[in-house]
Amino acid sequence: MFSRIARPTLCIATRSLSTSSQNNAKVAVLGASGGIGQPLSLLLKNSPLVGELSLFDIAHTPGVAADLSHIETRAHVTGYMGPDQLDAALKGCNVVVIPAGVPRKPGMTRDDLFNTNATIVATLADAVARNCPEAMICIIANPVNSTIPITSEVMKKYGVYNPNRVFGVTTLDIVRANAFVAELKGLDPARVNVPVIGGHAGKTIIPLISQATPKVEFPADQLSALTARIQDAGTEVVKAKAGAGSATLSMAYAGARFTFSVLDAMNGKDGVVECAYVRSEETECKYFSTPLLLGKHGIEKNLGLMPLVS
C-alpha cells in the first residue's frame, strides 16, 4: 500500500497538466501576503488546474494580486484585504487553503502559537462555513494538531461539517523525509517515498522509514538521528533563519503539492493518495494523519495503517 502514498508521480510543475473540463477551480488562499502565502500563491498561479485565484489577507493583498496577475498563466487573480472583504474572497470557492497566522520564532513551540493562531483560524473557518461550506479546506496554519479540531468545531456549529473535506496539511513532513533519506542514500528524492503518520508537531510526527520505497535500511543510531531530524526539521529552519522566520518556501511547496492532489482528485483522477491530518477512526486519537485515497468529494477512503516494523 505504502508504495503509492505521499509522492506524486510527476513533479509539481508538470503533474497538473490535465485537460479536464473542471480545470476552472476557484482556489482561495487566506493569508496570501505572508511568507508562506506569497510563494504558495505563485505556485498555484502557475497551475492550469486553477481558473480563479482569490487572495485574502489583512494587508498588502492588492499588491500581491497585481504582481501575480502579470504572470502569463490562465488563472485570474483577485486580491481582497481586511475583514470587510473576507466574505467576498470566499464566494464560490472550491478549495480554501489557509496558511494564515503568525510564524514560529526561535524558542517557540507550535503550542506557543496556539493562542494567536487559534483565533485567526476560527475566524476564517467561520467565514468559510458561511460562504463556501462545500469547499475543500486545507489548513496549513500551526499548530495543525489544534487548528484542525478548531476548524471542525466551527463547521459543526453551522451544521456544515464534512470530515471528508477538512485536511491538516502535513505534507511538509513527507517532503522532508523524502529529501533527508535521499540525501543519506544518494538517491533521487523524486523517487523516494516515505510515509509519515501521526500528527504535525515534534514526537507526534512518525516517519515510517521501514515502509519507504525504495526500501532503505539504516543502523540503529543513524535511524534514530534521522527520525529526530524529521521531527525537529521545523526548528532546524527557525534556528537557521536566526529570528527571521520559519519554514516558508518548503511549506509553500508542500502546500501546493497537496492542493494539486486535491484538485486532481476532484477532476476525477484515480489513485491520488496523500497523507493528511483528519478526523479518524484508525486509532484512539480523534484526529490522526494516515494515507488517504482522495476523490471528487474529498476523502474517498482512509487507507489506515499497515503493520509497523519496530
UniProtKB/TrEMBL annotation:
Entry keyword Oxidoreductase: yes
Active-site annotation: H200
SUPFAM superfamilies recorded: LDH C-terminal domain-like, NAD(P)-binding Rossmann-fold domains
Every Lactate/malate dehydrogenase N-terminal domain range: 26-168
Record-listed substrate binding positions: R104, R110, N142, R176
Keywords: NAD, Oxidoreductase, Tricarboxylic acid cycle
Organism placement in taxonomy: Eukaryota, Metazoa, Chordata, Craniata, Vertebrata
Binding residues annotated for NAD(+), in chain numbering: G31, A32, S33, G34, G35, I36, G37, D57, N117, I140, A141, N142, M251
Keyword Cytoplasm: no
UniProt source species: Oncorhynchus mykiss
Subunit structure: Homodimer.
One MF term in the entry's GO annotations: L-malate dehydrogenase (NAD+) activity
Signal sequence annotation: none
A single GO cellular-component term on record: mitochondrion
EC number of the protein: 1.1.1.37
Protein name: Malate dehydrogenase
Enzyme type, top EC level: oxidoreductase
